[in-house]
Design goal:
Blueprint (H helix, E strand, L loop, with lengths): L6 H11 L1 E4 L5 H17 L24 E2 L6 H7 L2 H11 L3 E9 L8 E4 L1 H5 L6 E7 L10 E3 L44 E5 L4 E3 L11 E8 L4 E2 L6 E3 L4 E2 L2 E2 L15
Length: 267
């Protein structure tokens, strides 16, 4: 991350609209290293952690053979290192007002022709108490609307959690249902360059469109975080990770938080 990045401005934008963009949080060599690392994981697979049918057997959904990598920090030292990277920790400390804990990582390949992800709120799944989660979405390719960039809906971070999809397929599922963008709000798709990070609030409505290009990938590495003072989180996100890389424990959210008996889910 370049020294000219103004952390105070990042926090100001985050508070005012529910998201902010940190340019060049990773440099070109780091982006290349992450892409090559996950290409190896995709090619060699990780039994019990990351498996998929052979390329060519995708049928109607190319994501069947290029599925996202869920929680690579649990088996990849490199993924864990970027999850707790000091540059990211500094921004999160300014946003939370305290140290952060990592709770989830994901790698999306999103090859040409792949579908998008339904509009959703992360806190619906994570059920953090007290407070909420924060996502750090790092572009590993040039990202825009054409290749399925992230769509965010500014100012929806102040809205309550939409509970209408309780019991339904999740936002990544092809049969999932998007939550509606409320009247008076409008989504936008920021253009990002490799190494840029889009950082957003757990209640912010967001999703993505399909990759409509024939030759452009839209790879991204995403981590989710909570404040160190978090006491409980959905059972699907344990153990948590301190910024020194060590696993830590927190309680499990029971009672469904704002959505009654719903206990959250991996998303």
């Amino acid at each position: 991350m370049e020294d000219r990045v103004d952390t105070q401005q990042l926090v100001k934008d985050f508070v005012e609209r529910g998201y902010t963009i940190a340019p060049n949080i990773l440099n070109g060599d780091e982006v290349k290293a992450l892409n090559e690392h996950f290409e190896t994981i995709h090619r060699e697979q990780v039994p019990g952690r990351y498996e998929h049918p052979p390329v060519g057997e995708e049928r109607d959904d190319i994501l069947a053979v290029y599925p996202r990598v869920m929680n690579p920090h649990r088996f990849s030292e490199l993924a864990r290192a970027y999850m707790v990277d000091p540059r990211i920790a500094t921004i999160l400390r300014a946003i939370f007002g305290e140290e952060a804990l990592g709770v989830q990582t994901m790698m999306y390949f999103k090859p040409p022709g792949s579908r998008g992800q339904k509009m959703h709120q992360d806190q619906f799944y994570l059920q953090v108490t007290p407070g909420t989660c924060v996502a750090v979405w790092i572009a590993l390719d040039h990202v825009d609307q054409k290749n399925g960039g992230l769509i965010v809906v500014p100012h929806t971070d102040t809205l309550p959690i939409d509970c209408r999809n309780v019991g339904k397929p999740g936002s990544y599922d092809p049969d999932g249902e998007p939550i509606a963008i409320p009247a008076g709000y409008k989504g936008e798709c920021p253009t990002l360059e490799p190494g840029d990070a889009l950082i957003f609030h757990g209640s912010l409505i967001h999703g993505s469109g399909s990759n409509a290009t024939s030759d452009k990938w839209r790879r991204s590495f995403i981590s989710h975080y909570v404040a160190e003072s978090c006491t409980t989180i959905s059972k699907y996100y344990h153990p948590l990770v301190a910024m020194n890389g060590a696993d830590v424990d927190r309680g499990v959210t029971v009672g469904g938080g704002p959505c009654g008996g719903y206990v959250g889910a991996a998303h």
